[in-house]
Amino acid sequence: MPEHDVKTRRSAEDFPRSEHLAWKIAEIAADPVPVPAQTEAMVVNRIIDNAAVSAASVIRRPVTVGRAQAFAHRTRHGASVFGVDGTVSAEWAAWANGVAVRELDFHDTFLAAEYSHPGDNIPALVAVAQQLGVRGADLIRGIATAYEVQIDLVKGICLHQHKIDHVAHLGPSVAAGLGTMLRLDPETIYAAVGQALHLTTATRQSRKGLISSWKAFAPAWAGKVAIEAVDRAMRGEGSPAPIWEGEDGVVAWLLAGPEHTYRVPLPGPGEPKRAILDSYTKEHSAEYQSQAPIDLARRMRSRISDLDQIESVVLHTSNHTHVVIGTGSNDPQKFDPDASRETLDHSVMYIFAVALQDGTWHHERSYAPERAHQADTIDLWRKISTVEDAEWTRRYHSTDPSEKAFGARAVITLKNGDTIVDELAVADAHPLGARPFDREQYVAKFTELADGVVEAEEQQRFLDAVDNVSGLKAGALGALNVRVDPRVLDKAPTIPSGIFR
């Protein structure tokens, strides 16, 4: 796959549009290359995965807020909001459904120079496809492009090092995916990509300190903004350019500065889009870098007869894990039993303690306030720390899939001086893990999380529809919406009125 140099260019410099990263992205989005069978199968898996986690989150407060805002923008020929009848304007459906997908930190991930949840692309593309009566085959093409663009940007450009939130890669990928799905020309896609990047760049404070519900709303915002950017571009409006490379652009002032060169891989002309196959979903509802530590804790607990005899636990891990969800973050909130759910799912110390005690992980019970306030959990939790290990950092950034790792080595020291040591490189559900996810596991995750939320007949109807998504004709993509049992929705919290009615 060709790599492209991305660096700051002076305004007076001869820098043709054909060399702009946004133009190169537009070209691959406009390339009519067929979707490989493996890519299509994984797209179906991720549509199922998104529906699963949306079912689990459907009556949580942020999801309820997003749904209420969306239904203040009803339209007769619009898009579906997860779980309910009726249609709303596509950008608001993308907003509500994006929050539902992201709320529990429970869907797919890709980690490299940056990190990402590329499944965040799907709600926006499905919403526009429903509103415009797009065919299922074109939806799949668009999703394949969106995954490709976001994952390639994640491979080449680190955002978190400069305290920029990772959704800055999501706005451009949604715009590119929509360009493919709607068969737009490169000129239009180029303008949309530039606008989307310009408008979705924000700081990482949304994932620092006391983490709020905005963590769930942030990717939904990126999807909504990208839809609006594509709409403007389709009407002939342009964008700031060159958006990445300009003298006052993203690289110069928000990232590594005018002296730095990034290298971004992108498919060449006629090269299939396969990047979705590099990504992986979650078995557990928690930050991805805690997936392997959860499985490691479950494995190690059988070797400890009395957890009260633990003196300390040190997790040797990558720099990224150490500074984002470990003690290297220097966030005291990561040890606070009163911290938000969003904060706890970014505390590997809390997660390892609960998994070690319970031998399992649950998207609700493991975060319950009474669970976080359990005295023996607090005691164990505060004995856990992380340290950066150069080899784990190297493996985290490795481009060799066989050695790329997101796990840790745990050293548990007992009060009698004995130590118990074990390590796990990748989560059990990872493609190279002990129990990798395939269609069977995606379906099982959906049926488990939809149990008691979606009636069995409706579950099967959805699974049949998504299994045949490539064959769905224009106007038939409403079949991808899952209707939730109204008695479940009645349990959603009451939301105060806002500006939108």
TrEMBL record:
It holds the Pfam family MmgE_PrpD_N. One of its GO terms (biological process) is propionate metabolic process. Keywords: Lyase, Tricarboxylic acid cycle. Its EC number is 4.2.1.3, 4.2.1.79. The keyword Lyase applies. Residues 284-468 form the MmgE/PrpD C-terminal domain. It is an enzyme of class 4 (lyase). GO terms for molecular function: 2-methylcitrate dehydratase activity; aconitate hydratase activity. It catalyses: citrate = D-threo-isocitrate; (2S,3S)-2-methylcitrate = 2-methyl-cis-aconitate + H2O. InterPro entries: 2-Methylcitrate_Dehydratase (IPR053420), MmgE/PrpD_sf (IPR036148), MmgE/PrpD_sf_1 (IPR042183), MmgE/PrpD_sf_2 (IPR042188), MmgE_PrpD (IPR005656), MmgE_PrpD_C (IPR045337), MmgE_PrpD_N (IPR045336). Residues 19-260 form the MmgE/PrpD N-terminal domain. Belongs to the PrpD family. This is 2-methylcitrate dehydratase.
